[in-house]
Amino acid sequence: MNRATRPVQHFSDDYLSRCRDLSPDDIVRFLEDFKRIHRTTQRGSRLISIKVPEALLAAFKIQARLRGVRYQTQIKALMRSWLEEAAPTGPPTPDAGVRQ
Asked: Where are the domains of the chain?
């Protein structure tokens, strides 16, 4: 199985020493602030399965790598861009998006 490697965080001894000196209240405050910040910027993601021609996917991955972007991040950016361009100018109709 080909698994992607994940980055490993390395902390300096000074940083770890300062973390050891944190009080329980400091830790709780940090965690609450962290959750509050990230709750507004990130929502849950859903794993999807999609069939893509192998040559198209390979070319897309190469282009993303050359630009220093993760290919799935680029796919999401393209989806957002497309939605912004295709945004309706008025309220949606009751049957919008329903296949006939």
From this structure: 13-42, 52-88
